[in-house]
Amino acid sequence: MTLWLDPVCPFSWNTARWLAAATDATAQGFEVRLMSLAVLNEGRELPPPQQDRMTDSRRVGRLMAALADELGPHAVRDAYFAFADHYFDQSKKVDAELAAHVVKAVGAHCTTAAALDDTSYDAAVATSHQASQDAHGDSSGSPLLTIDDRTVFGPVLTGVPEPGDGPDLLAAVTALVGASEFSELSRPRNHP
Questions:
Q1: pLDDT tens across 74-108, in order?
Q2: For the chain, how many helices (H) and strands (E)?
């Protein structure tokens, strides 16, 4: 199972936490791979708050690519959780201090906060992003979930399900993804 995500997408943070709890409860695992909303939105006119988020996306993508380069692709999951806890739950900004925290959390020795601005990692981010789009089969945002070689957009979660509900949601998502006839299921985000 693979969760493709942009590290600065808040919905992906909900999905990642749900998936971590649900897979722990069912003894399954999942990997985290990088996609990029900054790459997806290149050339588009965005309002200033979204432009700021795309700047964060690009910078954190570089850091994740550097860590994957040093430690292997498995490092992205641990790096993401170390990053997202501080970025979303503690409202930390993307800066050298946050990058140093992530680097330390995954035990990297060569990667530094300078990776945030090292454009040499942009190609790796773009390649991983393209792999996410290829897996999905269409242009799509974050998160994407691959189960048994089938990739869907979502699930987009507005919060993290209660721990007891996580495995049931995973079973339902797995069943939907496994049905070749399944295409889409949606409701408004403000729905109770």
A1: 999 999 999 999 999 999 999 999 999 999 999 99
A2: 7, 4
Please spell the DSSP secondary structure of 42-87, one letter per residue: TT----HHHHHHHHHHHHHHHHHHHHHHHH-TTHHHHHHHHHHIII
* Per-residue b or e along 43-58, where b marks 16 or more CB atoms closer than 10 Å to that residue's CB: eeeeeeeeeebbebbb
Q: How many residues does the chain have?
A: 192
| pTM, to two decimals | 0.94
Find where tokens 């089938």 sit: 150
Decide if 167 contacts 21 (C-beta within 8 A): no
The pair phi, psi for residue 47, each rounded to 5°, is: -65, 155
